[in-house]
Specification:
The complex is a heterodimer.
Chain A lengths: L1 H7 L1 H13 L3 H14 L3 H7 L4 H5 L3 H9 L27 E4 L5 E3 L6 H10 L6 E4 L4 E4 L2 H11 L41 H16 L20 H7 L30 H9 L25 H14 L12 H4 L15 E7 L5 E6 L5 E6 L3 E6 L5 E6 L4 E6 L7 E6 L2 E6 L5 H10 L4 H11 L4 E4 L5 E5 L6 E4 L5 E5 L8 E5 L4 E4 L8 E6 L5 E6 L3 E5 L4 E6 L6 E6 L5 E6 L3 E6 L8 E4 L5 E6 L5 E6 L4 E7 L9 E8 L10 E6 L6 E5 L3 E6 L1
Antiparallel strand pairs in A: 1-2, 3-4, 5-33, 6-7, 7-8, 8-9, 10-11, 11-12, 12-14, 13-14, 15-16, 16-17, 17-18, 19-20, 20-21, 21-22, 23-24, 24-25, 25-26, 27-28, 28-29, 29-30, 31-32, 32-33
Helix pairs in contact in A: 3-6
Chain B lengths: L12 E8 L11 E5 L4 H15 L8 E5 L2 E2 L4 H8 L7 E7 L5 E7 L4 E5 L6 E5 L4 E5 L3 E7 L5 E7 L9 E8 L3 E8 L8 E4 L2 E4 L5 E6 L5 E6 L3 E6 L8 H14 L4 E3 L3 E4 L5 E5 L5 E6 L3 E6 L5 E6 L4 E7 L5 E6 L1 E7 L11 E3 L6 E6 L6 E6 L4 E5 L5 E5 L6 E7 L3 E6 L3 E6 L5
Parallel strand pairs in B: 1-5, 10-14, 15-19
Antiparallel strand pairs in B: 1-2, 3-4, 3-5, 6-35, 7-8, 8-9, 9-10, 11-12, 12-13, 13-15, 16-17, 17-18, 18-20, 21-22, 22-23, 23-24, 25-26, 26-27, 27-28, 29-30, 30-31, 31-32, 33-34, 34-35
The chains are: A alpha+beta, B mainly beta.
């Protein structure tokens, strides 16, 4: 290549020779320059540099090699400028003949400028013309090579200049970590890793002090935006306006086309229409009749202006100064979140069969503790025993009068049925159970004549214990009508309620000794029902207004529950003993949590008519109420052993099916002791069994 | 035959071929024919009967039932194919079987009280137990041959005890359970009675339950009976007369018993299975080593007879009244209880305790259910709604509903493989015969 240069640039070389002679000082510089030129081995450079690089050929190559070594770190692409004028505006040389000086200090002559037309023509012919760039600084034309255009294109696209560079090459971790048995440094962890940094501590103290002094302010003062919505909503700003009760005027309706001073013809009513308006009632008459004016100047003043402002003043003066606050809440969200009924199964929901046989309303039912037998007492004067699983009536007692209440003895094996009939209480032997049990029952139900005599001396006024003359059992004669009999859980004591009995309204009897005693507390109001506490020696006495809890051992009043109902009709005690439900004549049901308060924990208004009875299930978390409206309600009533958790009450099912007879509906309900089933006794003389 | 005369072109047709496993007079030619797709079971039955008549001119039409892919057709053919996603393009193979339905009603056998238990295990005699405390043996035609006297309470369950090698003889051994807390064993000659019913006394009273005995089941070879009771236990009892002595002496004694009808032996329970927490309402003893029991505590258990442990416990959620084991390889458990659903479990299915079939066409409690002892698919159920239903596992609808009783049906059984016998609270024993189960 170098040889080729020499050959091509023969003429200008001679001129250069002359210049070298003129300026000896520049020789060395030229050498340097030449070295740089050597690095750049591209032909275009050589062509253009030929004049200044004449010496290249003449000066020997040994210096070349030396300098190459020295400048090994310079970039390969860097091209030393031929022109040495430096970074000066080129217009300084605009009128000169030269464009600057080369490295030897010689003037670099401007090349003869081509005529534009010539250059254009040359360009048209030459297909590579677009690659040529004029370098003003060096006064030369540069023709870009293919690689260079490629580079530029790639740069313009934002890629790496060289195609072979892969910026996203997968990372190769050359270091083999697997076999590293030892850490890179075997030095023990230095102490400084374990102690808090002293420097940091100092810095923190410094900051804390600065904060205390107030040099550092942590919360920036809020900048109030200086811009605000000038034409923003009036009403919102009015609400924030000071003044106690600013009431914004109602917004007027926006004016339409017909309110224009010059509306289109179709808006303007005809003469007849205006006449017809006059015949209409004042309320129906349109408030505004469009009229037409030639120009805005002809529009008269608004005739109602004074009247309307007066009305507005009147409004403000007369309007009530309280603002109605609307709460925007979805009423559904206010309902308490209750578990779904599906999760609370099983519970009685459907009646599959009935116990038919009574001739009149069934007043009372009771299920034997094992769940095999059901006893019922009816207004037709019979007491019946049914087999639960088949619905067969296995025994009938004719007792003559309407039965008020039946109750099985809660001891298994002691199948005695207590029946309240009129002013008598009968204790009947049902004849169920094996011989051993029968012997025991017979012994219990035997009243000796002598003992009767003794007792009649002692407390004749209370109760007479007699042997029943017709059936196997005991007949107890009371003074007044007995409405309810309730057994103690051990099956020996039982209590009777005589609402008309005044101080003897509640009596407690001992079956094994045939004893009767008065209830030793003052009676408040007419008693309705009694219940024994399922585990402790408490008795619940419900009067029409309140429920009182007495401790029978300590002989004192423990608690008084105030349902604040009009008339209590029934009471049931949860098997755990701490919760009580009370039904009332007005159809309300109260749940008392005795640990919480004497006020009801929940008051459920469910029945439209009197509640006749309420019942708890022995093992399932269920309770039920039955009512004169011929329905029974089943609820889920979960009592948690955790004292922090209040009982959960969920209404589950309304059980219908009984027909109202003589204005009465369901008279009694009782749960099966082991299954989630409910028995209901109706005034339509049918007992229904609702199963899960 | 022109079934499609008045229907017009809009009706779609299906290519079908009738196949059957029935014997030759009931067999139609296996050529495919095009039939209207809106035909129901009745229409298909008419076609098959007509085809049979074309071959055999004095053919008596009889109802058939039709199976596609082992499922009974219970709606119109088109709906059935759509529901099952079966293509109507190909030739459809329809298998027909004799319709399972009683064709004849025998006169009812009248009792004095509710019929609470029934057994059709003996092919010549039907045994019933009644609430009046008497067990009765009936012959066809409403003839009462024997009355079993002795119980003081209602009979709740009866079963036949078949000692080894005694199947052929006319001597019968039966066991009854009663609400008087006892079980009684009876032995008599089935051929003996002529004229008025002969009275039989029990040769053995089994005492031990503390509450009424709800169900009884005999050992497959008759050596023992087991009973479930309201006291939530299952007791095992020996059936032979003396517990200690060998066979020879017992036979001797039996002869004495038969002559005098006086001496009564009592015996105690051999062992007692405790585990249920409520009334054991039903026991089944089909294989020698396992007793199945259903209880009101919502569980079905399988007891190992040797160890007395419950090896399998299935929780159902309803109080159960009846149980039977049968079906495919005598492994399926059918049970009904305090709701109108008859459920069938497959205990061989691992992991899942969900019932494999649920039949819910009854409208009240199910009081009894029984598998057919030959067929894998058929079972019968009785309900308090007064209906007896025949079920085929291949369809969810009852194949037949027998509505003969006027009150609750308390017990049901198969008899002689082709009759359904049922007893109810209307004090009747109803026999529906000629149920053809192939």
């Amino acid at each position: 290549m170098r040889v080729a240069n020499g050959l091509v640039l023969g003429d200008s070389a001679k001129e250069e020779m002359e210049e070298t002679k003129n300026n000896d000082d520049n020789v060395k510089k030229n050498e340097l320059n030449h070295k740089q030129g050597v690095d750049d081995e591209e032909p275009r450079n050589l062509v253009l540099n030929a004049a200044s690089n004449l010496e290249e050929a003449t000066l020997d190559g040994e210096a070349e090699t030396n300098q190459r070594v020295e400048e090994s770190d310079s970039s390969e692409d860097e091209v030393a400028p031929r022109n040495t004028v430096g970074d000066v505006p080129l217009k300084w040389y605009k009128d000169e003949e030269h464009i600057g000086y080369d490295i030897t200090g010689k003037k670099i002559k401007k090349q003869a400028r081509k005529d534009m037309l010539d250059s254009f023509l040359a360009g048209v012919d030459n297909s590579k013309n677009w690659r040529k760039i004029y370098d003003e600084y060096n006064d030369e034309e540069v023709e870009l090579t293919k690689q260079e255009t490629g580079l530029i294109r790639r740069l313009l696209k934002g890629k790496t200049p060289h195609e072979e560079v892969d910026p996203y090459a997968p990372y190769v971790d050359w270091f083999v970590w697997d076999d590293a048995k030892h850490p890179l440094s075997n030095a023990p962890e230095p102490k400084r890793r374990f102690i808090p940094s002293k420097w940091e501590n100092k810095k923190v103290v410094e900051l804390v002090r600065a904060i205390r002094r107030g040099d550092i302010k942590l919360d920036k003062p809020k900048e109030e935006s200086r811009l605000y919505l000038l034409w923003g909503d009036d009403s919102s700003s009015a609400e924030k306006a000071p003044g106690i009760n600013y009431i914004p005027a109602p917004k007027p309706k926006l004016a339409g086309h017909e309110e224009s001073y010059n509306p289109s013809v179709e808006y303007i009513p005809t003469k007849e229409e205006i006449d017809s308006y006059k015949q209409m009632y004042e309320e129906d008459r349109p408030k505004f009749i469009p009229r037409r004016f030639e120009s805005l100047r002809n529009v008269p003043a608004y005739e109602n202006a004074i009247k309307e402002s007066f009305d507005r003043c009147l409004d403000l003066y007369l309007c009530p100064r309280t603002r109605k606050k609307r709460v925007n809440i979805d009423p559904e969200s206010l309902k308490p979140k209750l578990p779904s009924r599906k999760d609370l199964k099983p519970y009685p929901s459907k009646c599959y069969f009935e116990y038919k046989g009574h001739k009149d309303a069934v007043r009372s039912i009771s299920v034997e503790p094992s769940g095999q037998w059901l006893a019922s007492g009816s207004n037709d004067g019979t007491v019946r025993i049914w087999e639960v699983e088949t619905g067969r009536c296995i025994r009938i007692w004719e007792v003559g009068e309407g039965v008020q209440c039946v109750a099985w003895n809660p001891m298994t094996g002691l199948t005695i049925l207590a029946v309240a009939v009129g002013s008598d209480v009968l204790l009947l032997n049902t004849g169920i159970g094996d011989d051993e049990e029968q012997d025991k029952i017979k012994k219990l139900l035997h009243v000796e004549a002598t003992s009767v005599a003794n007792h009649s001396d002692h407390n004749a006024s209370l109760v007479d214990w007699l042997q029943h003359d017709k059936y196997e059992g005991i007949r107890m004669r009371f003074l007044k009508t007995v409405t309810s009999v309730e057994w103690h859980r051990k099956g020996d004591y039982f209590s009777t309620v005589m609402p008309g009995g005044d101080s003897r309204g509640i009596l407690i009897h001992l079956l094994s000794k045939k004893l009767t005693q008065k209830f030793s507390f003052k009676q408040h109001g007419i008693p309705v029902a009694t219940k024994f506490h399922p585990s402790r020696s408490y008795i619940f006495i419900a009067t029409k207004k309140a429920v009182r809890v007495y401790d029978l051992l300590k002989q004192k009043l423990m608690r008084k529950l105030e349902p604040s109902l009009r008339e209590v009709s029934s009471i049931a005690v949860h098997p755990s003993g701490d919760n009580v439900i009370v039904g009332s004549r007005e159809g309300k049901l109260c749940w008392f949590d005795m640990d919480l308060s004497p006020q009801p924990y929940r008051k459920l208004e469910c029945h439209p008519k009197d509640i006749t009875n309420v019942a708890f299930h022995q093992s399932y978390p269920l309770f039920a109420s039955c009512s004169e409206d011929s329905t029974s309600y089943v609820f889920h009533g979960m009592v948690y052993s955790d004292l922090n958790q209040n009982p959960l009450i969920v209404p589950l099912e309304i059980l219908r099916g009984h027909a109202a007879t003589n204005g009465r509906g369901v008279l009694d309900c009782a749960f099966h002791p082991r299954q989630p089933w409910l028995f209901t006794a109706g005034s339509d003389s049918v007992i229904k069994l609702y199963c899960h | 035959m022109d079934l499609d005369d008045g229907y017009g072109e809009a009706m779609r047709r299906v290519q079908v071929r009738f196949t059957t496993k029935l014997q030759s007079p009931l067999r139609v030619s296996p050529t495919s024919i095009a039939i209207p797709s809106n035909l129901t079971r009745k229409g298909l039955s008419v076609i098959v009967n007509n085809l049979l008549k074309a071959v055999n001119s004095d053919w008596e039409p009889q109802p058939f039932d039709f199976l596609v892919d082992d499922e009974l057709i219970r709606m119109s053919l088109e709906e059935f194919l759509l529901a099952k996603g079966i293509s109507a393009e190909k030739i459809l193979e329809i298998e027909y079987i004799k319709a399972v339905a009683p064709r004849k009603q025998e006169p009812p056998c009248l009792h004095d009280d509710w019929v609470s238990a029934i057994s059709g295990a003996n092919s010549s005699l039907i045994m019933t137990g009644s609430y009046d405390g008497f067990g009765r043996m009936w012959k066809t035609g409403g003839l009462c041959t024997h009355i079993l006297e002795g119980h003081t309470g209602a009979i709740t369950s009866v079963c036949m005890v078949n000692p080894k090698g005694l199947e052929s003889s006319t001597s019968l051994c039966v066991a009854t359970a009663s609400k008087d807390r006892t079980l009684r064993l009876w032995k008599f000659d089935s051929e003996l009675s002529i004229g008025h019913p002969s009275k039989v006394r029990s040769y053995k009273t089994l005492n031990g339950h503390k509450s009424s005995v709800q169900s009884i089941a005999a050992h497959p070879y008759g050596a023992m009976v087991c009973s479930g009771s309201w006291d939530s236990t299952i007791n095992l009892w020996r059936t032979n007369e003396s517990d200690a002595d060998g066979d020879s002496t017992s036979i001797k004694k039996r002869k004495v018993d038969n002559d005098t009808r006086e001496s009564q032996s009592e015996s105690e329970a051999l062992s007692s299975f405790v585990g249920h927490t409520q009334c054991v309402s039903s026991v089944v003893w089909q294989q020698e080593e396992a007793i199945y029991s259903a209880s009101w505590d919502h569980s079905i258990r399988r007891w190992d007879v040797e160890t007395g442990k419950d090896s399998f416990n299935l929780f159902c959620g309803k109080a159960l009244n009846c149980l039977d084991v049968g079906g495919e390889s005598s492994a399926l458990i059918a049970a009904g209880g305090s709701d109108p659903v008859l459920r069938i479990w497959d205990p061989r299915k691992p992991g899942s305790l969900a019932p494999v079939f649920q039949f819910s066409s009854h409208s009240s409690w199910i009081s009894a259910c029984k598998w057919h002892d030959q067929s894998w698919f058929h079972l019968v159920s009785a309900s308090y709604d007064g209906k007896v239903m025949l079920w085929d596992l291949r369809t969810a609808w009852p194949v037949a509903v027998i509505d003969l009783h006027k009150d609750k049906v308390l017990c049901v059984d198969w008899w002689k493989g082709d009759s359904v016998i049922s007893g109810g609270a209307d004090a009747k024993l109803c026999i529906s015969s000629e149920v053809s189960i192939s």
